[in-house]
Design a protein that fits this description.
binds nicotinamide-adenine-dinucleotide; 496 residues; 20 strands; single chain; seven-stranded mixed β-sheet; Aldehyde Dehydrogenase, Chain A, domain 2; 15 helices; 2 domains; alpha/beta; Aldehyde Dehydrogenase, Chain A, domain 1
């Protein structure tokens, strides 16, 4: 993002024409005049009025996807042709990255530097990666008796309903849409009511890139109406959900109450971040702990929200984390100097403040932060917050906060560290700092988490899967494994 100043982003934001329609069967529908206001958390101002999808819009989008899947060209194209369209989507996303990053920043408050430098490259890379993968997949022909030929083929699973949250609105949509399209499925995407505008842009760009009508539809609306209608729809074959554990349960019920559609869940987390006394570089570990919890305002499913530090080094690590929290620049997300923007909205900010209040009431020690800030902007800003003296029974240690609030717990030996780390209903991710390779492997095996980062946090690339265990869900985003969510295995047995 070379040399784009705060003033220039503000100017671009003023000239952005944001509209909130649905994108169904290759065209925009609904929009101005009906729907709900989408509000920017940076200043509380209305960004656009967004079409509010009810059952009629969900029915229309699913019918378009059904037609595209049952009789349209997309699932029947050579995989290399599908791949070319996905790569074209990646190219258009890249060309329009300024507008997309700005839209994301305005919608949900992510600092423009991160929207432009992290979120956009991630979604571009997602479409490119699955586009390039599309024609590299092979089916199986197992050895059988000599008078038979067995084929195990991977077939697209059908119409996919994708329901996603707002914290990485484009990346998380891409993690579902790109592998589903590569597999040959048709998709109905329901973005969060906090981030419908960037999702609509994605839908339009996909059509512009040559995706046939109906293959990617975007219906905006609320969870309990639009999301539920998609979850209950009898013509949806797979429901891929990313969001809270509580709403994940609803989707399992919707499937049970309708057509037993396959439900894949990527849910919440309360990830432990363990720092052992033999950590090679304590300052780096502390810096990573602070970055991990305050990046994206702490609105990260995998945020290392429980810092587990060995008692012998706790003071040093905690001092460093607190110093970094105090030095963090919280401010307007459109200012390239901003490191932490506002939380996504007033209701969420109040929820996070509730967790801070619960921490104080339960007897944890508030070391820094805990209060609203920049109140006169009209935005939803909270100070980076650190508690220590947290015990494992406190709400601070058990509940997902999804905000910039770190809870520090201490331990005395490795067994206690592992016990504390696993003492949660979640199992999305974990971090570990040590200089001992054997300890790294042993602890990684003992941790019940979908990802374990050693001497780093939030690292990875598209080749490795991301997802949880326990109540963090069962879906796997990224990598070739994501295709499992959007394909069915078929056996053809030919007697020779
Ligand atoms: P949320 O569960 O409130 O909403 C997610 C989506 O579900 C939205 O589109 C929403 O409109 C829809 N929805 C809400 N209620 C619904 C209902 N009753 N029926 C049908 N749909 C409904 O979550 P959120 O606040 O948007 O996002 C934060 C949560 O997402 C956190 O718990 C976070 O950990 C989780 N998350 C998980 C991952 C992951 O990969 N595991 C990634 C990002 C976020």
């Amino acid at each position: 993002m070379p040399d784009v100043t705060h003033e220039e982003w503000l100017r671009r934001a003023r000239s952005l024409r944001l509209t909130g329609a649905h994108h169904i069967d290759g065209a925009d529908e609904g929009g101005a005049g009906v729907g709900f206001d989408t509000v920017s958390p940076r200043d509380g101002r209305v960004l656009a009025q967004v079409a509010d999808g009810g059952t009629a819009e969900v029915d229309a989008a699913v019918a378009a996807a059904r037609r595209a899947f049952d009789t349209g060209p997309w699932p029947r194209l050579a995989p290399a042709e599908r791949g070319r369209v996905l790569v074209r989507i990646a190219e258009l996303l890249q060309e329009r990255r300024d507008e997309l990053a700005l839209t994301v920043s305005l919608e949900m408050g992510k600092p423009i530097t991160d929207a432009h430098g992290i979120e956009l490259p991630a979604v571009v890379n997602t479409f490119r990666w699955y586009g390039q993968l599309a024609d590299k997949l092979t089916d199986e022909s197992p050895h059988t008796a000599s008078n038979a030929l067995a084929l195990v083929t991977r077939e697209p699973a059908g119409v996919v309903g994708a329901v996603v949250p707002w914290n990485f609105p484009l990346t998380l949509a891409g993690w579902k849409v790109a592998p589903a399209l590569a597999a040959g499925c048709a998709v109905v995407l329901k973005p969060s009511e906090h981030s419908p505008l960037s999702a609509l842009l994605l839908g339009r760009i996909a059509t512009e890139a040559g995706l046939p009508p109906g293959v990617l539809n975007v219906v905006s609306g609320t969870g309990p109406v639009t999301g539920q209608a998609l979850g209950l729809h009898p013509d949806v074959d797979v429901l891929a959900f990313t969001g809270s554990t509580c709403v994940g349960r609803h989707f399992l019920r919707y499937a049970a109450d309708s057509n037993l559609k396959r439900v894949r869940l990527e849910l919440g987390g309360k990830s432990p971040h363990i720092i052992l006394p033999d950590t090679p570089d304590l300052e780096r570990a502390a810096a990573t702990a602070a970055w991990g919890i305050f990046f994206n305002q702490g609105e990260m499913c995998s945020a290392p929200s429980r810092l587990l530090v060995h008692s012998s080094i706790a003071d040093r690590v905690v001092d460093s984390v607190v110093r970094r929290a105090r030095a963090l620049r919280t401010g307007d997300p459109l200012d390239p100097a901003t490191e932490m923007g506002p939380l996504v909205g007033e209701a969420h900010l109040r929820r996070v403040e509730g967790h801070v209040g619960a921490g104080i009431a339960d007897g944890a020690r508030l070391l820094t932060g805990g209060s609203r800030t920049l109140v006169d902007t009209g935005g939803c800003y909270l100070e980076p917050t650190v508690f220590d003296q947290v015990n494992p029974r406190m709400r601070l240690a058990r509940e997902e906060i999804f905000g910039p609030v770190l809870s520090v717990l201490t331990f005395h030996d490795l067994d206690e560290a592992v016990r504390l780390a696993n003492d949660t209903e979640y199992g999305l991710a974990a971090g570990l700092w040590t200089s001992d390779l054997t300890t790294a492997h042993r602890v990684s095996r003992a941790l019940r988490a979908g990802t374990v980062w050693v001497n780093c946090y939030e690292e990875g690339d598209m080749s490795v899967p991301f997802g949880g265990v326990k109540q963090s869900g069962d879906g796997r985003a990224k990598s070739a494994h994501a295709l499992d969510d959007y394909t069915e295995l078929k056996t053809t047995w030919i007697q020779l």
